[in-house]
């Protein structure tokens, strides 16, 4: 089993500059591959695989002056950027993704790959490859970047796919580590989970988890975010010269404050989802059933779009799914058109005229009166018996 660990980096100013340069190298090579593939395809020469492109890139670095500067950076950054671009093209040809776009310096997320054989960890630092070209012992310390969390990443372990990324404020390193799988099989009863907007999740065992976006803390941060957005927008309009916007130091300061608040909101929501999903999985149920929601269709409703977006339904679904794999819990996805809310939990009668505003379910057949979300979770739990 491979688990991914993500830790924040604390580089000094020179290391930060070098990390941006490494990310720029990966972006340059990615765009070069897309351009090369596009021109080659227009000439009816077909698709070129990553092996041939890496050979071509090595020749250019040795002969062409335009590519000489790439020798100052790790060769593995360029090699992986070529693989990523070719992989994006193959996904497009298979119909799994849209046509790959060029990476923008302003809009794309700065990131680059580190080779598994070159990276090494201590309790406090991570050693990256070729941040400095000097071989002197005192200069080699420049390759060691301090970690924000001590002892979080195991020192002697098998690493996979190390990536260094920048989120707008801080640099992070994420690495996959091979862990031993647990062999304990859960024996408790199954759980059905109904997720919604009023509450984040309602379980069939009557456990209920609140919507974190309705708390005073989050509402206060959202209000602060709206004020910062308006302030930043006014500063941009005030410094507009013709059709262009001048980015002054005050604008940069406002944007940084806005990024901090946005990141704080995102972290609060994701932390709440992590605590909720971990608590559900740690109960060791035999199976967990969730419905496949049409989130894209729900986002088209202008009255619900913001609330649906803030609930992070996909993130909740993703975390439950991979945590079930860790604990050997069977995860079942109910059909999107299964009437979990409209079906009576007592007699099985389906109430077709049930509205979204009806929070209490009244059965016309047997007179059953029950809370709507709880009934949906019970029906989802019983869905496992229909598919078994």
Q: H/E series, N to C? A: EHHHEEEHEEEEEEHEEHEHHHEEEH
* Rg calc: 26 Å
Major sheet characteristics:
7 strands, antiparallel
DSSP E strands, number:
16
Low-confidence stretches: none
Topology of this structure?
Elements (H helix, E strand, L loop, with lengths): L1 E9 L2 H30 L7 H14 L11 H19 L17 E3 L6 E2 L3 E3 L9 H4 L3 E4 L11 E8 L4 E8 L12 E5 L5 E3 L4 E2 L6 H23 L1 E2 L2 E2 L3 H33 L5 E5 L3 H4 L6 H7 L1 H15 L2 E5 L25 E3 L6 E3 H16 L1
Q: Which structural traits does this protein have?
A:
single chain; about 400 residues; alpha+beta; Nucleotidyltransferase, domain 5; 7-stranded antiparallel β-sheet; 10 helices
Written account of the structure:
By secondary structure, the chain is α+β, with helices and mostly antiparallel strands. It folds into 2 domains: 2-178, no CATH class; 191-212 and 262-387, Nucleotidyltransferase, domain 5 (2-Layer Sandwich), CATH 3.30.420. The protein is 43% helix and 17% strand. It is built from 10 helices and 16 strands. The protein has helices spanning 13-42, 50-63, 75-93, 137-140, 216-238, 249-281, 295-298, 305-311, 313-327, 372-387, and strands at residues 2-10, 111-113, 120-121, 125-127, 144-147, 159-166, 171-178, 191-195, 201-203, 208-209, 240-241, 244-245, 287-291, 330-334, 360-362, 369-371. A hairpin with a 4-residue loop joins strand 6 and strand 7. Helix 1 (13-42) crosses helix 3 and helix 5 (216-238) packs antiparallel against helix 6 (249-281). The mean pLDDT is 90.
């Amino acid at each position: 089993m491979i688990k991914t660990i993500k830790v924040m980096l604390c580089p000094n100013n020179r290391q930060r500059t070098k990390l941006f340069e490494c990310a720029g190298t990966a972006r340059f090579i990615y765009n070069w591959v897309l351009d090369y593939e596009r021109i080659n395809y227009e000439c009816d020469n077909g698709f070129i695989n990553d092996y041939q492109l890496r050979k071509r890139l090595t020749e250019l670095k040795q002969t062409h002056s335009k590519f000489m500067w790439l020798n100052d950076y790790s060769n593995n950054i360029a090699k992986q950027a070529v693989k990523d671009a070719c992989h994006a093209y193959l996904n497009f040809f298979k119909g799994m993704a849209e046509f790959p776009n060029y990476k923008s310096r302003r809009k794309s997320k700065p990131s680059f790959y580190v080779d598994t054989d070159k990276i090494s960890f201590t309790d406090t630092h991570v050693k990256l490859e070729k941040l400095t070209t000097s071989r002197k012992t005192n200069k080699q310390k420049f390759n060691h970047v301090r970690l924000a969390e001590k002892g979080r990443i195991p020192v002697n372990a098998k690493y996979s796919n190390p990536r260094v990324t920048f989120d707008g404020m801080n640099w992070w390193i994420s690495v996959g580590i091979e862990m031993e799988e647990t062999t304990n099989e859960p024996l408790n009863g199954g759980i059905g989970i109904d997720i919604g907007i009023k509450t984040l999740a309602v379980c069939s065992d009557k456990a209920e988890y609140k919507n974190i976006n309705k708390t005073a803390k989050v509402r206060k941060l959202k209000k602060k975010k709206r004020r910062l957005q308006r302030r930043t927008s006014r500063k941009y309009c005030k410094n507009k010269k013709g059709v262009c916007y001048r980015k002054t130091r005050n604008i940069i300061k406002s944007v940084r404050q806005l990024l901090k608040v946005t990141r704080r909101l995102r972290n609060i929501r994701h932390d709440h989802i992590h605590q909720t999903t971990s608590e559900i999985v740690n109960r060791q149920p035999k199976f967990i059933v969730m419905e496949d929601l049409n989130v894209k269709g729900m986002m088209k409703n202008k009255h619900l779009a913001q609330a649906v977006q803030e609930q992070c339904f996909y993130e909740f679904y993703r975390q439950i799914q991979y945590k079930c794999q860790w604990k050997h819990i069977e995860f079942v996805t109910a059909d999107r058109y299964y009437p979990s809310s409209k079906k009576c939990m007592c007699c099985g009668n389906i109430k077709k005229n049930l509205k979204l505003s009806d929070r209490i379910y009244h059965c016309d057949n047997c007179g059953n009166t029950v809370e709507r979300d709880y009934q949906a979770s019970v029906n989802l739990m019983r869905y496992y018996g229909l598919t078994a």
